[in-house]
């Protein structure tokens, strides 16, 4: 504890003095490119963008990893101990509360909120800090000793949400990978830091079988949020420190690297570029499907999103996801002759083609979507390839993987879309599925699920599914693995 407190004081001092000397530039309205304000400001780590790595991890693109890349140790340490982790947690918890307060909860109902415990309601940061964020491989004995101290602090932003939910009359259910023998100490720990009441504290199982309606589900791991009975909405809290496959087994997570030297967060904000809203947090919320149904980006984030999209961070993030996708494909050992039924599903806009020239002229998402002017742009056939996706596409074609484009573009745009695809290098495909009349007005997830279902009925095996929207990737028949490309400019439900 003492070390983390010292370290926090040190940060506070640094940040305060930096503010005092107006070190951080204010954002102006112009969106002309200088360099990305997304945080890397270039390449702090040779050959690897730790921001991209974190993006990949937090969006469930990079999975089954055992340790943080060694070269990202500093970055993760700075992120976790700096203000950006707290801001991101705040953004997600605020969004969760907006959702809960929109539901007119009745005080005596059976509406439940499911919270994970570690890194969601309780924080083990003191443990990780004391252990240099994992200077040695994960040691279950040692971690359990820590758990049995009952000294885990609350994640303050989650505690706030918890208190508000309790006031609304929502039932609290904790579902954790901690084991039964840790029940007493976990209860004591929860109470000691302010979680005074709950309905259930359980090992993972289907709470809905007990008659609850799960209105929300908060966790730091995607394994908390995917699967069945996930609730009305999910909220993904940040955790770039470890990956858990199966929560029930739990705690066999690995660890992390050497000591961290704390200066200030290298996550990019270094403080508050934009008063009242952290655009990094907003983007984090959007990309993790925690902030949904938005119409435009916050006005204050126009600059940030513009710089991100035009700067190299967007390209690096796209590369990280496409690289990960190809690494995955290689593990499948596709034999060229056996691959007849194997397909890869690509979305089009902001996945294989980029409409950045259009959005650059229209405020990067700060303007409300104008179907008329966007369709005029589509009909020019001048969309660019997203270069990183084009590379993946070419590798897949070489492996004889069948290509299926599945897009929300409409049938009347077929010819121009085909021409546009070919003109930028997508020369062949098996199917180009556009939105027909019977799907007009239907949500994208429903339309795309139905199309993928047909593909599977026809005998295709979807080995991968790539899109920039969660509505490309959720629903049914999603394929063996999904890949979420960045898109902080617009939301399609
Ligand atoms: C909640 O109540 C408000 C005001 O009575 C109403 O406008 C809104 O539609 C209700 N929302 C839901 C989800 O029932
Ligand atoms: C794991 O932690 C325990 C308790 O701190 C210690 O006795 C043991 O030597 C550690 N094991 C390894 C492999 O470091
Ligand atoms: C692919 O081949 C490697 C090496 O031969 C093997 O270890 C791996 O299990 C195979 N993967 C699949 C999915 O068959
Ligand atoms: C939408 O775009 C069209 C075509 O560019 C333009 O005429 C129209 O005024 C725009 N609508 C709005 C609400 O801006």
TrEMBL record:
Recorded GO MF terms: acid phosphatase activity
Keyword field: Signal
Pfam families membership: Acid_phosphat_B
Signal peptide residue numbers: 1-20
CDD domains named among the record's database cross-references: HAD_VSP (cd07535)
Keyword Methyltransferase: no
Gene3D superfamilies, sorted: HAD superfamily/HAD-like
InterPro entries per UniProt: Acid_phosphat_B-like, Acid_phosphatase_pln, HAD-like_sf, HAD_sf
Entry-linked PANTHER family: ACID PHOSPHATASE-LIKE PROTEIN, VEGETATIVE STORAGE PROTEIN 1-RELATED
Protein name: Acid phosphatase
Lineage: Eukaryota, Viridiplantae, Streptophyta, Embryophyta, Tracheophyta
């Amino acid at each position: 504890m003492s070390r983390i407190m010292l370290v926090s004081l040190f940060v506070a001092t640094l940040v305060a003095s930096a503010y005092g000397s107006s070190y951080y530039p204010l954002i102006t309205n112009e969106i002309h490119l200088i360099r990305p304000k997304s945080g890397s400001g270039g390449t702090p780590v040779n050959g690897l963008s730790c921001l991209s790595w974190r993006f990949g991890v937090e969006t469930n693109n990079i999975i089954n990893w055992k340790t943080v890349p060694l070269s990202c140790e500093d970055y993760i340490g700075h992120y976790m101990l700096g203000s950006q982790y707290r801001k991101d947690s705040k953004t997600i918890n605020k969004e969760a509360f907006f959702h809960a307060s929109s539901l007119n909860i009745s005080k005596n109902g059976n509406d439940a909120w499911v919270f994970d415990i570690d890194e969601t309601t309780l924080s083990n940061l003191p443990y990780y800090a004391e252990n240099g964020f994992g200077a040695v491989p994960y040691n279950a004995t040692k971690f359990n000793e820590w758990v049995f101290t009952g000294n885990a602090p609350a994640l303050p932003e989650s505690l706030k949400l918890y208190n508000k939910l309790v006031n609304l009359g929502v039932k609290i259910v904790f579902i954790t990978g901690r084991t039964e023998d840790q029940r007493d100490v976990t209860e004591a720990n929860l109470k000691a830091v302010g979680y005074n009441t709950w309905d259930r504290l359980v090992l993972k199982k289907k709470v809905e079988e007990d008659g609850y309606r799960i209105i929300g589900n908060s966790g730091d791991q995607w394994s908390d949020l995917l699967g069945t009975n996930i609730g009305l909405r999910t909220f993904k809290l940040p955790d770039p420190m470890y990956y858990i496959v199966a929560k029930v087994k739990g705690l066999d997570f690995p660890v992390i690297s050497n000591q961290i030297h704390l200066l200030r967060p290298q996550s990019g904000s270094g403080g508050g570029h934009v008063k009242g809203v952290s655009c990094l947090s907003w983007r984090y919320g959007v990309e993790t499907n925690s902030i949904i149904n938005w119409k435009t980006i916050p006005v204050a984030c126009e600059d940030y999103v513009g710089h991100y999209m035009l700067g190299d961070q967007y390209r690096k993030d796209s590369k990280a996801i496409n690289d990960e996708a190809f690494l995955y494909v290689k593990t499948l050992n596709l034999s060229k002759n056996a691959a007849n039924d194997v397909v890869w599903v690509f979305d089009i806009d902001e996945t294989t083609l980029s409409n950045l020239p259009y959005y650059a002229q229209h405020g990067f998402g700060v303007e409300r979507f104008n179907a008329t002017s966007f369709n005029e742009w589509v009909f020019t056939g001048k969309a660019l390839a997203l270069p990183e996706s084009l590379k993946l596409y070419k590798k897949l074609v070489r492996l004889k993987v069948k290509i299926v484009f599945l897009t929300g573009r409409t049938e009347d745009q077929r010819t121009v879309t085909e021409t546009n695809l070919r003109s930028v290098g997508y020369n062949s495909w098996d199917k180009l599925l556009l939105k027909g009349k019977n799907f007009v007005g239907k949500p994208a997830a429903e339309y795309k699920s139905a199309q993928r279902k047909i593909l599977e009925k026809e005998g295709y095996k979807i080995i991968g599914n790539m899109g920039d929207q969660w509505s490309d990737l959720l629903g049914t028949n999603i394929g063996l693995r999904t890949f979420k490309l960045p898109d902080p400019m617009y939301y399609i439900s």
